[in-house]
Amino acid sequence: MEISPVEPRSNDQQTENFQISNEGVRELNFLLYGPVGAGKSSIINTIKSIFEERQYIECLAAAESTTSQTIHFQKFSMAKDGSFPFAFSDIMGLEKELLKGVSSEDIISALKGHVKEGYTFNPVIPLTDPNEYYRTNPGPNDKIHCLINVMPADKLAMMADDFIQKMKQVRVAASRMNIPQVVFLTRIDRTCQMTKEDLRKVYKSKKIRDKMRQCSNTLGVPVNCIFPVWNYHEETGVNAEINCLMLNALTQIIPWANDYIVKSLNNQPRLE
């Protein structure tokens, strides 16, 4: 598959005109989680840049940092003039050490809608009730409708077993809640020189395909739910190929999140 620079506008229109199937839900909520430096915050900036049609820096990002730049639970709405009914939540990065980074318990609480925006993550003590940032009775607009695992392609082989177990613990909890789960595979330019030189060839790259399979084997996510993406980080203007790659992922996961709304929030039983 070769990405065409003609596609972004078509995909952009699909996202712009998307209508949520349940009128009681204002926005589809996506939660980004993954290791420190994977590019979670940069993904939000990239998506916002696409929808604003200009470089947009709303979320503090530092891809080479070894400590998380995000310390609060933050929700970034993409809504604009009644279009793009989506919101992406950013959280503290995962770390392999037991008492560092966001706790698995806090991520699971966020999935269930218990964590209020502005909560300061505490790696040692997870959020519990009573607390002003703990939402006791979350509604459909508070819950997460799709979990996005953000994984750096160039660092997959270096991830310790303890770290992977943290991620799997969250995945198991999300599966019990029937929340759709995907992977955004970042830092692909550091994995494949061919892709770095010509982003349109990303799906032709054997190295990228191998990384997708490796990620699938590591996390247990099907390959067709793993999307290589390129974040804006050095570019000074918008780029059609970068936009197309991200929009390709969004046009896949948005209907899946909507399917979750239909199946889980329209009085159908689901596991907690």
TrEMBL record:
Protein's name in the database: G domain-containing protein
Name a single GO biological process.
immune response
Gene3D superfamilies with a match to the protein in the record: P-loop containing nucleotide triphosphate hydrolases
The species is: Astyanax mexicanus (Blind cave fish)
Q: Which SUPFAM superfamilies match?
A: P-loop containing nucleoside triphosphate hydrolases
Superkingdom in the source lineage: Eukaryota
